[in-house]
Amino acid sequence: MPEIRESAAPESVQEHLREIQALLDKQQLVESLVHKQEMPRHELVESLVHKQHVAELQNKLDALHPADIAYVLEALPIDERLAVWDLVKAGRDGEILLEVSDPVRDTLIAYMEPAELVAAAETLDTDELADLAPGLPDEVMQGVFQALPVEEREQLRSAMSYDEDAVGALMDFDLVTIRDDITLEVVLRYLRRLEELPDHTDQIFVVDRAEYLKGVLPVNTLLVNDPDRRVADVMKTDVLRLTPADKAAEAAQAFERYDLVTAPIVDDNGKLIGRVTVDAVLDYVREAAENDRLKLGGLRQEEDIFASVWASVRNRWTWLAVNLVTAFIASRVIGLFEDSIEKLVALAALMPIVSGIGGNSGNQTITMIVRALALGQISQASARALLTKEIAIALLNGVVWGGIIGVFTMLLYRSVLLGLVMTAAMTLNLLVAALFGVFIPMLMSKLGRDPAVGSSVLITAITDSGGFFIFLGLATLFLV
Amino acid sequence: MPEIRESAAPESVQEHLREIQALLDKQQLVESLVHKQEMPRHELVESLVHKQHVAELQNKLDALHPADIAYVLEALPIDERLAVWDLVKAGRDGEILLEVSDPVRDTLIAYMEPAELVAAAETLDTDELADLAPGLPDEVMQGVFQALPVEEREQLRSAMSYDEDAVGALMDFDLVTIRDDITLEVVLRYLRRLEELPDHTDQIFVVDRAEYLKGVLPVNTLLVNDPDRRVADVMKTDVLRLTPADKAAEAAQAFERYDLVTAPIVDDNGKLIGRVTVDAVLDYVREAAENDRLKLGGLRQEEDIFASVWASVRNRWTWLAVNLVTAFIASRVIGLFEDSIEKLVALAALMPIVSGIGGNSGNQTITMIVRALALGQISQASARALLTKEIAIALLNGVVWGGIIGVFTMLLYRSVLLGLVMTAAMTLNLLVAALFGVFIPMLMSKLGRDPAVGSSVLITAITDSGGFFIFLGLATLFLV
User: Fold this and answer.
1) How far apart are CA B190 and CA B83, in angstroms?
2) Are residues B465 and B343 in the same domain?
3) Could you say which residues from 263 to 292 on chain B have a Cβ atom under 8 Å away from some Cβ of chain A?
4) pLDDT in tens, B36-70
5) Which residue(s) pair with B215 in the sheet?
6) Among A120, A136, A164, where does a domain finish?
7) Which among A224, A256, A393 has CB closest to B194?
8) Residue B370 belongs to domain spanning
9) Above 90 in pLDDT, residue A52?
């Protein structure tokens, strides 16, 4: 691993970006770099000034941490991105590919030769390789597999077999193990012989001859205890043990709850097979939160901001199509009452208020229930209490907000009855929102689906069509 | 600090919850515990069986990690929550209060005597105390201040002065410092004398006589190097230094990017004043993500699922009121065109499709822009490219989806012109959505406001009112 060169302040990665952009703007640097072959041997391109700019850019890039280069690549349009990518030292390709977002990685991989990709992949650990593998062409993966020693080939195969939401996908195979019958002095001497410890070594795993995990020796314990003491006397045996099939989200909660830096992963027999480190957990938590937000916003996945129109459109069509269908259904519900609207056109102006408030309120309920479900805090008994509470809130909101809008309606359209219908419709639609706001996520969770995805679309569809039906139906009964 | 008892598997906190709920259900345990004073000395309550259940519950709680008790408290209805709270050992109150969510903490604090609260606060470090302070009554905070030694009183005052989004709010004062002119052997002996190191000690801070930070000695470096070497020869000097005023979000990104476990905090003169640990960062990232989601869902803050109806209503009214105003405006826009709708009632049924798709598409654009803004990846040049791209996507979607709906409209209402108006209105509204979807978050960010909050409400308001206006306006021009 190259030495980590950290930036002096958290802001400075944005300064790096600006400096690199300024260098790229100079002297057609991008064209000369990306379209090398096509360019005639123009004097300017070959000039000393130009060469100096390229060298300056190269130096700048060499001094940056791989994660910072990834950040810069993501923020650059395709041409400039590839120009910078060309200047990155070949030995660092792999690490940087690990750090960039999926869609940006695809643009880089598409631009690389298979041989370059194999070389980049070979600089990585097996657990890192497993993260990269889904985006690599088959021929590259075959080359990579063949180049690996047998043990690592097995590790890669097992790492690739885990679901991305499982602890196995976060597994790191790089760990230090010791026996429990030695003294701390011996441990210290053993570590000194290693020359370098794996990143995030906050504890050393204590195993028996058959690699079964017996406990852990925290480095802090090692440091503060008398070197003559035996590992068995000071090691911690009450340790959180993960298995590869555990849910990553639950492991992340455990890291948060118990303030862990690393945790061992054991197989079903208790044999130590790897570990999870807090940096993988932090990435996982951030990514999971981002995915939730993207899905709530109606995007299928993260978007390269410089993606082609076509790539962006594909990322967004699913939700637009779903929305179109639900909007069409709502439209047909209104169509049922065209006669009533023709007779009392005020209904057309008022109906979106009923559906809109219902949707808003339903989404509030869903947000709360989804969070509680994610934390596993809802039991059968509390579900009933929650529903009762949500219904009480809906009634209160219906009477208050529905009442206010009802009075407005009366004044605006000079009809007491229309105002009353408005209040009644709003209250009923809020009740529908409360009912389905509790019901939909609980049902999805019971069916083993993620209640965060789709619940919002469903509740909005129900409160739209339902709101129109309730309001126009009541109006038809009492007004027309 | 009490010994950390970690659970055997990440699921098991939910098992603990179920066991505790089962114990609470037995023999009116809750009533007897919470309403002690009011209860007559009923035989049942005094019975051995009852006493045994209380003891069992107590043992169960004593064995749990503070974070797990917090989890259980959050998942219990108020009465049972307070019953369990009563059984928690007094010395652990403080730690548990730190772990529970704000609204649940308020229910616990409201139930405690001032003296109990002062005692609980006194078990905490100053940085932890600063997190708890905003929720404590003034008289309690005065008591706490008086009980603190002068140095810690200053630390508490400074920790409380930072904005909750600043690095200062994540600061931990508990750190080990050394000088650079000693050998590693001396460092090892010094650490051994400390008996216990602060949590998350992955590096030891190297300072001069005046406490200025000169570098860090990673524990791993300490372990693998020859004990005769001097600190100055092996320490790392190229270190990320945070200041208390740095934004917590940027510090979190640095932790993620550089895979840090701790980072030093220095004052403006470079003097070491504290550190940030990865567990605080992980909590921050999780909370920030959760707050975003709550705000997108229209909740002001996290909600205690067992909060009173009144508390929940207050948490939700702001957004409902905003939504009501925007819905009312949209309704008035429709009101402008009542004559047209009276003449062609199909308009009433079709208009929600135009507004709905516009809102959906606008929210997709906003989600993408807000993410890119949060990462600081949008420059002036890329903003123009982004806008062009979004407009191209809007045109494509307008032609395709607008075309499909246009054909449906033609077939349904047997009017080619109405179909064309529908397609044109959808395309125009999608353009409005793209324009404002880029413009709103960029403007908010320029004004120094968080573009994640409110952008979604604004774009929906614009595409609703705008969609109605465009569709009904075009229909009035060409059809009526």
Assistant:
1) 46
2) yes
3) 277-279, 281-283, 285-286, 289-290, 292
4) 544 454 554 456 777 788 888 888 899 899 999 99
5) B206
6) A164
7) A224
8) 309-478
9) no
